[in-house]
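Running this now, will post back.
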Amino acid sequence: MKIVFLTTLIGLLFNISFFFSNGNIIDTKLKHHKFDKENYEKIFYLKNKESVTIYCTKHSEHESVQKIKYQQHNGGGTKNKFKITKAEEIKD
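Update: finished.
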C-alpha cells in the first residue's frame, strides 16, 4: 500500500513539473531545449550524474542529457543542473 502511494505521489509530482515547464529545460550554458513528455519523463527520473540520449524537439536532433545535483550554500537546498551535449550519430 505504501509503495502504491509513493508511486502515485511521484507520478503526480512529474505531471505538475511537466505542466509548469512544458518540457522546457535550460542547460548549464543557458541554452534553451524542449522535450516531449516521454523524453522529459526520462530526464525527470535520472539519478545524479546519470545521462540519457534523447530527442530535442527544438533543435531537431538527439542530445545527451546529464543531470547534476548540487547543494546550494546558505540553506538553499538541493538544485539540479543539466549538462546537454550533441549526441553522436545513432545508427540503426
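The CA atoms of residues 32 and 51 lie 18 Å apart. More later if anyone needs it.
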